[in-house]
Write a structure and sequence with these properties.
The structure is a homodimer.
Chain A (H helix, E strand, L loop, with lengths): L28 H8 L1 E5 L4 E3 L7 E7 L2 E6 L5 E7 L4 E2 L1 H6 L6 E4 L3 E7 H10 L1 H27 L2 H16 L1 E3 L2 E5 L4 H8 L3 H14 L2 E4 L2 E5 L1
Antiparallel strand pairs in A: 1-8, 2-7, 3-6, 3-8, 4-5, 4-7, 9-10, 10-12, 11-12
Helix pairs in contact in A: 1-3, 3-4, 5-7, 6-7
The structure holds a DNA duplex.
Chain lengths: 226, 226
Amino acid sequence: MRDYSDVQHPCGNCDFHDQSIWQPVSGAALPILNRGFDRLPLETSQILFEQGEENSGVYCVSRGLIGIRSCQDDGKSTLLRLAYPGEIIGFRSFMAGQPHHTEAQALIPSRVCKVPRHSVRQILNRSPEVLGRLADRCIQEIDRSHAHIIAAATRSNTERLSDLLGRLLQIHGRDCADGKRMYLPLSRIDLADLLGIRPETLSRVVARLLNDSAYSICGREVLLRG
Amino acid sequence: MRDYSDVQHPCGNCDFHDQSIWQPVSGAALPILNRGFDRLPLETSQILFEQGEENSGVYCVSRGLIGIRSCQDDGKSTLLRLAYPGEIIGFRSFMAGQPHHTEAQALIPSRVCKVPRHSVRQILNRSPEVLGRLADRCIQEIDRSHAHIIAAATRSNTERLSDLLGRLLQIHGRDCADGKRMYLPLSRIDLADLLGIRPETLSRVVARLLNDSAYSICGREVLLRG
DNA sequence: CGGAGACTTGATCTGAGTCAAGGGGAGTGG
DNA sequence: CCACTCCCCTTGACTCAGATCAAGTCTCCG
């Protein structure tokens, strides 16, 4: 019986390592994980994988912000959702055994950790708990979709924009004298996509929000007074 | 080594038995499945489980049609989706280990097969392929949600109603001299919920559909001429 | 008979989409 | 350095679909 107690866990450096789907990997499976594990730095607007590409593995966002886009046949693309550190991307494609049907793009300088497909398969065989964690992520994705559908039907666009900015501020915001500030990591078009509205409408929604709330927005500089 | 080759599989009677998530169960796990397996007949509008109830197992729709509703705090309920034969319900709650946050109700006389929670756990331990099939259902649910979001954003209500009726006709429709007929298993309010619009609007959408398409609708009698 | 609920219809309001125009910044080329 | 273009974003005017409010019909059921 070999002793694996001195083998480092690759997720040890990430803040959320105990939430990582790879956290249960230990013992003989750990070297498999380490061997395949790859940390990829991404520049702003760099593409991680394209729509239609074969799935080559499972990615975990280590830092930064990744945008998941759907590209239409006419060349237009639409931002579907954001993936924050700790989130897994590409697992739908992995689990379904199909090509990616979305594109992943870094919205700010980011880092993702990749585990190639065949390593994932080997690990799943040895550490069934990992499959349990993957299933949890599926459930989260389902819940997120449901919440999105409900929010779209019941909340006004101003409320939803406010919610979205609040979530972004929690992650990207820095405290300062007059409240909380951030540099918006999204274009107006991307913001509009996320809310499922037209850019012109977003422009008006933003204007409305400036009047009715504690937000000040100038270009991509966002300030929440308070 | 006991011989299990003469043990019947409980899903053998269903048309879709090879698609059943329990199909991979065999050998020593089969008696566990059989022991817990319970066929429940449901009358129209009978409740299978309520929102907030503890999860007591996983259900598979054997025949009929089950409506999944979300009940608001003010007592109003909203039909979220339909579950057809072969679909699994209650698995989100099972996998998350949380109470149901939707309600399941038979829309027509139906039958569901229940496998209690502890049996599912035992089976998952012995037949990991079942977990794979469960994961597939998760993926399907995610895809369905995405399709729903996209359809809501890009298609008109008339188109979406037409799509919905088409799907219902495929399952509940019977061929007759002048086309395809069915008795609509849903109230107008439920139809409106599924499309995410108000009942008054649905009424007008139906009126529009009667003019522009091959549908004739009178009360709950639907005819697709052709 | 009366009441409740499902459904329809009409009138009106509102919010988002669409079309069109223009400002402003970044990058390019002369 | 300036002119030019491209793209992002904003603004205004208009249109239209759906929400809302109100009224009325119908059926079912006590």
